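Section handout 9: paired folding examples.
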Amino acid sequence: MKAVFADTFYWIALTLPGDAAYARAEQVTEDIVTTEEVLTEYLNFFCASPDFLRREVVSNVDAILHDPTVRVAGLGGSALINAVTGVIKIEASSRSRIG
């Protein structure tokens, strides 16, 4: 099977079930290649969205980074992984103080 490049459009469509491209994006399930830059654009796209959606997108990026069926090409650094992990820790800490 050929690898499929997942650009920002793909990740946005997959996040929004009401998006016209959602059904097609959902069909691509294996041998996906993307980049750290694409994931950064994906995060930026949702930066002005409601809190629940921003949390979902950060969680999605964390899952993408740890998904063995997705290859993430990048500059070789771990800045994106550190940023996503940091946001997840902050969210968890905030929830534990509230509850």
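Moving on to protein 2 of 2.
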Amino acid sequence: MQYYCISELIFVFQIESHIERICVILSHNIRAVRHMASRCLSVWADIMPQKVMPIIAKQVVPRLDAGENDVTRQGAIEAIWCIVDRLGLNLLPYIVLLVVPVLGKSGFHFMCQY
């Protein structure tokens, strides 16, 4: 069991609230803003993956289903790409949460044509 001091718990709580705000910024109309939000999420995922990856799975991965909004989908896929690029092999425990949904959304509509 890990023990935390009060200041560490407050810090982790503040970071979690900021991560949720950054997830909202992934739908911004300006590409540079979406890119910087994606990079911030990837750095936080590298620092504390146990806290960040469940939030990513709950808030970013469902944005891949945004059928009519291309900006939302682009922000989600860029965030996932930045996280995959940053974590490298450390992504292995979370591969089912991130990579499998991306492959599921990208490949099946091409197979229906044949």
